């Protein structure tokens, strides 16, 4: 029986994102291979591939990232397919006798589904499987060719030595890992992607924002990459995100989980009569092994169309393909028209305006962190983000400090903490004004403290607190804003353009709607005023509110969790401790201004930085200036000693060289 690719509607798709992503990757991989066949000049075939991808993107069939960002992963699909074909050819040359009870197709299936180790002479694949691990496609040198496998293709395990888990958050886990080449320790965040839509565009858009950030008060980002991973998916109760209890509207989204390798990309024998198919809704090609024949039949009866019934399309396809080798100059529309006949209409609606507006790139994947769940193996994409390692954060610092200091702090300590706050403001100013982003999850735990040897840009002086004691030594510390997992691009939403923005295109009060509100303690009440679609209105002023609370925590040491809870609850009602208001009038005014109920009444970050309210407290005391001058002088002296030493050594080397030359 001839094999037919069958196009059909899937009325009730299961885990569409995972299937769609794999389907699109596979499609892009095949398309690229075709382009290489049509033009042997690598440059030209690349151009051809890009042109077609662009066309398909304009038609909403293939997302942009399948062209560039996912090219590495696309290659593993090509390799896997290539080696699968080699394996099939090998079997064909083995001349299976017709009387044999095992057909070639059965043999191929067996080899792809059982642990068969082929002899090196056969120059083909080993296929492994075990109940607990995914099947692995290995070449004879043991290279893992399975695009879903992590072991050999993992940039992370190839390049890094994982040292320890730094912690788990709502979106993934962060590890301290040493780079094998440069020897530096980094923080590497692993996020199992969990996307709403069929596109990774949001992920890449936001990662690109992170990559462009360059400010001493923002955690330094080094790189990010995607890997197929075989992870243990946990399937049970969600680990509560800080906001999940107060925000029932936060939706659990479809996960980017695809079923294990073999069922998704299995190859059927003729006798199995289970055609490969192109999933119409998802625009994906699925080589599927169906176990319930009747179900397949009935679905096909309802809505499937075989490719043979679209013969005109097929004809067109060949003509367009033939032409395409010489049509690299053709207009996109022309090619669109030709490909149009081949294209299956997507039954799912295109992303709505709101979808585009909601740009948080890490949709919550609570399961990833759920220790109580029942594990089951599944396949997914993992996003790795390599960042600067910051061993300390403000939450831990405040905890240590609060064990030692109580209110009122000395004016020197108050000044130190106001300087720390000012440096944090500089980082947020950069995020808002230069990057046009809203962090929306500012809290002490997301403000890291990096140690500096000298007075670097963005650094401040702080006392160290350890074991319930304050050390007299002051050290330079640079506060760094991190965890951009909920970041929103102000420019993305059309709703960001409000009448109040005046001359500025995207004013500080411009609102974007999202489905995640950040951490409840630091989130203002306006995030509870949902729009008609149950989404949270977010503006820059959400960050200002969080910073108002942080400022209070910096200036008012609280010993116990209960005291903190009571004080912060009161602050949210606009009430500050009496002793605090009496002692720190300007700072109290600033905090109440920043935490005003009406977001439009809150100052922008630049207004705060220019405000006398902060300047009065935030100016450097003579004590600090003197200390800093001492440190800078000491560093200068050390430098000049090193320079002298260096000169001496150079002279000695020169003398030795001269002696050698004489000999
Ligand atoms: N650059 C970094 N250096 C050192 N530790 C880090 C770094 N980034 C994150 N961490 C630590 O890793 C842990 C998890 O961080 P992550 O940002 O994933 O979650 P979180 O901020 O704790 O929670 P959520 O993401 O839900 O807000 C935290 O304990 C955090 O302090």
UniProtKB/TrEMBL annotation:
Residues 304-331 have a biased composition (Low complexity). ATP binds at residue 190. Its EC number is 2.7.11.1. One of its GO terms (cellular component) is nucleus. Belongs to the protein kinase superfamily. Ser/Thr protein kinase family. GCN2 subfamily. Gene3D superfamilies: Phosphorylase Kinase, domain 1, Transferase(Phosphotransferase) domain 1. The gene is hri2. This is non-specific serine/threonine protein kinase. It comes from Schizosaccharomyces japonicus (strain yFS275 / FY16936). Residues 287-296 have a biased composition (Basic and acidic residues). GO terms for biological process: negative regulation of cytoplasmic translational initiation in response to stress. It comes from the Eukaryota. GO terms for molecular function: ATP binding; eukaryotic translation initiation factor 2alpha kinase activity. InterPro entries: CC_SR_Kinase, HRI2_3H, Kinase-like_dom_sf, Prot_kinase_dom, Protein_kinase_ATP_BS, Ser/Thr_kinase_AS.
């Amino acid at each position: 029986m001839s094999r037919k690719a069958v196009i059909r509607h899937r009325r009730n798709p299961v885990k569409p994102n995972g299937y769609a992503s794999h389907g699109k990757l596979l499609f892009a991989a095949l398309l690229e291979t075709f382009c290489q066949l049509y033009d042997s000049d690598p440059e030209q075939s690349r151009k051809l591939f890009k042109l077609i991808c662009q066309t398909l993107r304009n038609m909403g069939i293939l997302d942009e990232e399948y062209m560039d960002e996912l090219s590495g992963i696309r290659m593993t699909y090509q390799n896997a397919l290539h080696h699968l074909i080699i394996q099939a050819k090998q079997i064909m040359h083995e001349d299976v006798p017709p009387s044999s009870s095992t057909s070639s197709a059965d043999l191929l299936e067996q080899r792809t589904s059982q642990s068969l180790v082929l002899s090196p002479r056969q120059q083909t694949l080993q296929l492994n499987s075990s109940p607990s691990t995914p099947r692995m496609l290995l070449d004879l040198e043991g290279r893992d060719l399975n695009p879903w496998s992590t072991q050999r293709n993992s940039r992370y395990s190839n390049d890094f030595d994982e040292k320890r888990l730094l912690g788990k958050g709502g979106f993934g886990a962060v590890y301290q890992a040493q780079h094998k080449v440069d020897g530096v320790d980094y923080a590497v965040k692993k996020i199992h992607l969990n996307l709403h839509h069929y596109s990774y565009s949001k992920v890449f858009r936001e990662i690109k924002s992170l990559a462009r950030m360059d400010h001493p008060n923002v955690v330094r980002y080094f790189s990010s990459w995607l890997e197929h991973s075989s992870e243990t998916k946990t399937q049970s109760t969600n680990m509560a995100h800080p906001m999940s209890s107060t925000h029932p509207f936060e939706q659990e989204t479809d996960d980017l989980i695809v079923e294990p390798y073999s069922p998704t990309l299995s190859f059927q024998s003729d006798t199995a009569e289970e055609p490969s198919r192109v999933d119409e809704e998802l625009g994906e090609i699925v080589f599927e092994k169906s176990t319930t024949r009747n179900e397949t039949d009935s679905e096909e009866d309802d809505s499937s169309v075989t490719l043979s019934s679209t013969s005109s399309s097929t004809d067109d396809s060949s003509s367009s393909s033939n032409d395409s080798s010489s049509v690299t100059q053709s207009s996109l529309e022309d090619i669109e028209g030709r490909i149009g006949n081949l294209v299956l209409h997507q039954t799912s609606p295109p992303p709505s305006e709101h979808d585009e507006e909601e740009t948080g790139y890490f949709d919550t994947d609570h399961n990833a962190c759920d220790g109580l769940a029942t594990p089951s193996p599944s396949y997914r994409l993992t996003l790795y983000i390599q960042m600067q390692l910051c061993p300390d954060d403000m939450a831990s610092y405040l905890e240590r400090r609060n064990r030692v200091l109580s209110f009122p702090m000395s004016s020197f300590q108050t000044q130190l903490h106001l300087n720390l706050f000012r440096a944090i403001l500089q980082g947020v100013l950069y995020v808002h004004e230069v990057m046009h982003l809203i962090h929306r999850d500012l809290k002490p735990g997301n403000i890291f403290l990096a140690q500096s040897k000298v007075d670097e840009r963005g650094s401040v002086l702080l006392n160290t607190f350890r074991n319930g004691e304050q050390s007299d030594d002051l050290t330079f510390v640079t506060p760094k804003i991190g965890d951009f997992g909920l970041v929103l691009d102000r420019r993305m939403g059309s709703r960001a353009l409000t009448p109040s923005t005046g001359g500025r295109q995207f004013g500080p009060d411009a609102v974007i709607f999202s489905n995640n509100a950040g951490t409840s303690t630091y989130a203002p009440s306006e995030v509870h005023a949902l729009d008609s679609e149950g989404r949270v209105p977010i503006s820059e002023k959400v960050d200002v509110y969080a910073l108002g609370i942080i400022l209070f925590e910096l200036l008012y040491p609280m010993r116990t969790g209960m005291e903190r809870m009571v004080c912060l609850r009161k602050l949210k009602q606009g009430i500050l401790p009496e002793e605090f208001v009496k002692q720190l009038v300007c700072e109290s005014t600033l905090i109440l201004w920043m935490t005003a109920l009406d977001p439009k009444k809150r100052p922008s970050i630049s207004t705060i930085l220019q405000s006398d309210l902060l300047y009065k407290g935030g100016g450097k005391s003579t004590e600090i200036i003197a200390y800093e001058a001492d440190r800078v002088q000491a560093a200068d002296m050390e430098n000049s000693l090193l320079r002298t030493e260096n000169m001496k050594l150079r002279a000695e080397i020169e003398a030795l060289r001269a002696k050698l030359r004489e000999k």
